[in-house]
Each structure stands twice: as structure tokens, then as C-alpha cells.
Amino acid sequence: MLYTSPSQARSSSAYSVRLPNMSQLINQSSFTPNFQFNSPARSYLKTNEIKQRKLQHHSVVAKLTDIINNQHPKKIPRQSLQSVNRRTSAYCITDKTQILWDSLKVKFEHEASDQLYELLLELLKQSNHLQVEKYTLPIHTKQEFTRFKHNFILTFLMEPNLLKIIHKLEQFRQPLLNPPSLYQELRGYSTISQIVDLLYQQLLKDITLQPFLVPYPERDFKQFAIQLITNLIQSQGNSTELKIQLHQFSELHKLNHVHFTQFKILFYRILIQFSINERAIRKILKIIDSYKSSILRAKPIKNYLIENSEILPLMVVDAKNQEQQKKQIMLLLEYITNNHSRAIKKDDLLMLNINQNVCQAIISTLQSLKPNHLIMQDFTQDLRSCLSQNYTIPSRLLDKLAKKLNQVPFYATIYKEHSIDWKKLTKIEIDFISQNRTHFRKKEIQLIHKRFKITNEIFDSYIQNIQDIMGVYSQNLVSRINHYRDWIVTEKNI
Questions:
Q1: Which GO molecular function, any one, fits this protein according to its record (predicted)?
Q2: I want to staple 104 with a disulfide (CB 3.0 to 4.6 A). Which of 80, 141, 155, 197 is the partner?
């Protein structure tokens, strides 16, 4: 029985409520409420207010009676009756926290524990910080962490502070899996200094970028570059100050996408020479991409979304599940517009099974705002990528393909002239296609392949070699490779 005693009263609106014992209702076919209203400060309440409160209580009891008469009594556990607000005497049948917990523990099946319940309560708090050290979780691999995270995302999907909850969950990744930081993967200050030395030498040889180095002494450039790279890879968010500086520099020297692409490819080749891990290289290139809008002096897509928050409903294509799809779109856009510290991963998006029609709805809505053509092109590439499945190709087949391509005169000449590791290049190319990577953009891929003068015949022979070597693995791969035909082939169709 829920009861608010006179001694607990904090204002003139406090009063006591006596509800009948719920267990007595099980054996009753009908129920006539015996409701008693006692106020500890009756003399201070206006007559109209007393009548209104009595009507409210009669309404609550009437609803309870209706539920009991139409459903089995056991479906309304007495423990779930919670007082939400003593001043208004509003009661709810189900407790929100209990609902979330019931939903979560079912997903964990036999793994549900008191620690999980404590974590759920911690995630519901408004604070951004999570005391990770007090939880001992049986997670040792990336796959286990991904499943663990997915269970919470599905549980909290409709919560208003979903993004904050996901960011708090990501705090577990470092202590549980201990992935190396970008600074560690670049092997610290010494290697970064050597990378900058080589970068300066290569920039001086590049006819496109060399003129921009003339006003700056070598020592000043190297100090600036080392500090810049260190800050970029250790930063948890985009540097607003750096974006402003790049925008001003670009305005002064009239930079365009050709300058940006040339620098990006040059930096990529240097990282390859230093045998930097491919995963680290991809992350660094994506961070560089986040400053592309500053170089092009164009507004980033994220700014359009912030300034036009009312366009989100226009991206929804499922009328029956509008609120759920809004949440999915919100997570999708958060993933695409944040290259620095992504709390949302591609696996998280694939788990949500987002309707593919959402992709076109988002593109159409954003295009109506008329963003920069190249910025929108990059956004579209990212969007299609994060909603597509990845394919894994066995390494033994990649080795066979690399050997066969090296025997083709056209490819062998390119490998020799440009001192390319043909085995490594083949693996990088197939990984880019099979995983639908986006660290290189359409315009960049076009510029890279333009000088090789690749014809449709050469492109078709490349596909044929893949089909011969990979067999069943080539089916999905070939359809994706054909997607890049217009980007790579330079001959014009007659």
C-alpha cells in the first residue's frame, strides 16, 4: 500500500492516499473503490482545489479498476506502482528504469548481473563522466565490445540523450581493449619529425605546391608542421582556430581541390614509406578530409544540419515508425560529420538495419540547401558507404591476383616506373573496394588515375583477372568495381 503520512507533508497540498490491497482483487469479479481522502491541512485548501483533487483520484482508481476488469491481475505487479509526484498524486503503472532494465537483461540472456544494472543507472544520469574503473566486464575482443555496445544502443534507442549515452559507453573501449592511439601508431615525436623532414623535401619538388613554401623558412615550417600533426592526431575535436587559419590562407593563395588532393596524396605516400599501419593512415586521411571545406572556402555539411534542424523530418521515409527512424538518421549523420572522435561506428549503423531509401531522402533534402558540389559529393560517398555491407577476401587469393597482375605488361610498367610494391598495392585496392572505404574521394581517385590513361579494355581485363582468380568471391566485388569505372577510365565513350 502506498501511503503519504501527514508527517511527510511539505506543503498544504500534501495528503494521504489509501488504495485497496491489490491481492484482494484477484478473487473479485467486480471492484467498487473505497477511497478515503484525508488532508493534514484541509483548512488551508480551497474548496475547489479539494474537489479537483478528489476527481483526479477517482479518475486514477477508475483506470485501475478498468485495467483489472479487462486484464489478468498478475500482469499488474504491485511493486511497479511508483509515486512520481507527491504534489499531484500522479501514479504510473510501469517504471521507466524497470522497463529499460527488462529490455536490456533479455538481450544479455544469462549474462545479466548487478553490475549491468548499476551501469544502466549510471548511463541515465546527466553527467558526461562515467566511472569506468568500478566495473569489471567480461570483454576481451572488439567483437565482444561491439555486441555489448549494440545491446545498450537498442535499449536506449528512443531516449532523448542517446548520443550522450553512446559517448559514455565508448569510454570503456580504451581500458577494455587498449587500442593504440594515433600518436603511438606514428611511433611518437621522433618519427613525426622524420615525416615532416621528408614532407618538406617532397613539397619543394612538387610544382603545384612548391610556390606556397617560398615565404616560409625551412625551420619555421618544420616546427609548425610537427606541432600541427601532433595536435591533429591527439585532438578530440575539430580545431576551430585551425579552420579559420586555413580558410584565410586558402583565400590569400586561391587554393582549390587540386592543391588539396595533391597534398593529401603526397602525405599518403610518405606515410606508406614509413610503414605506418593502414588503419592509422585511413584515420589520418579522414581527419585531413574534415578540413577540406576550409581549403575550398565552403560551408561544411554539419553547419547546414545545425542551421536547418527542421529538415530532419523531411528525411523520414517510414511513416509508421517516424520517431525510430529519426533516431537512426540522427546517428547516421553524427557518424558522417564527425571524423575526429566517432562514438558511432559503421557496425553500429549496420546493426540498426536502416532503410536504404533513407539515403536518397537525405541526399535530396540536403541538395535543396545548395551546398558546395564537391562537399556534397564527398558526403554522398560517405552516406552510401556506411549503409553498405563489407566483404572479406581471403589473403591467399589476393596474393594470386597480385602475381597475375604483375605479369600484365601494362601494370608491370606502372609498378616499375613508380617503384610501387605491387603486392601491397593490390591488397590496398581490393580492401578499398570490398570494404567500401572513403579515405579517398571520387575527385581524388580521378586525378590519381588520369595520367595512366586507363581504357575500358584495360579496365575489363582487370575485372576478368579478378573473376578468374577469385571465383565466387568476385560476384559482389565486380559489381562494386564497375561503380568506379567512370572514375578511373579516361577514354571518352563514342
A1: heme binding
A2: 155
Between CA 129 and CA 264, with CA 182 as vertex, the angle to 5 degrees is: 125
Q: Are residue 192 and residue 266 in the same domain, yes or no?
A: yes
pLDDT tens for 395-438 read 999 999 999 999 999 999 988 887 888 888 899 999 999 999 99
Q: Which residue is associated with the grid cell 577494455?
A: 176
Question: Cα separation of 48 and 255, whole Å?
Answer: 74
pLDDT digit string, tens, across residues 260-308: 999 999 999 999 999 999 999 999 999 999 999 999 999 999 999 999 9
Cβ atoms of 405 and 420 within 8 Å: the answer is no
The end-to-end CA distance of the chain, in Å, is: 85
Domain count, the chain: 5
Residues 323 and 413 in one domain: no
Domain for residue 443, yes or no? yes
pTM exceeds cut of 0.90: no
Cα gap 290→375, rounded to integer Å: 10
Secondary structure element (H or E) that encloses residue 439, with its range: none
Cβ atoms of 351 and 153 closer than 8 Å: yes
State the alpha helices, DSSP H only, in 290-438. 292-295, 301-307, 322-336, 346-351, 357-367, 373-386, 395-406, 409-417, 422-434
* Domain hosting residue 43, numbered range: 6-94
pLDDT < 50 regions, the chain: 1-20, 22-46, 71-94, 494
